[in-house]
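Morning run. Coffee first, then this:
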Amino acid sequence: MASAKTGMWTALLGALLILIDGIAVLSTGNFYGWHYGSASTVGWVEIILSLMMMGLAYYYKSNKSLVGWSVVILALITMPFDGGFWLIGAIVALIGGIIIATAKE
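And here it is:
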């Protein structure tokens, strides 16, 4: 089984991909695939949720279960706002959150 630290880095990688997607959507005004809301809504929601995931991942040692499942919930909320290739960021963050929550350290 993977360690919580591995899960934290995996969640951070996923959150970084979501953040990049949010910035790209805001800068270009375009997004691909099915989304909720306009380009501005999609961009800001992705940026806010990814920053929340990054902030939570910092506390992975204090309460693994709470932090892990919180990252999972944020990744699931982010999924309808991601489209196409960028959905991979939410999936990676989801996997990272599960690893944090189930780590036995």
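Residues 17 and 89 are 5 Å apart (CA to CA). Good start to the day.
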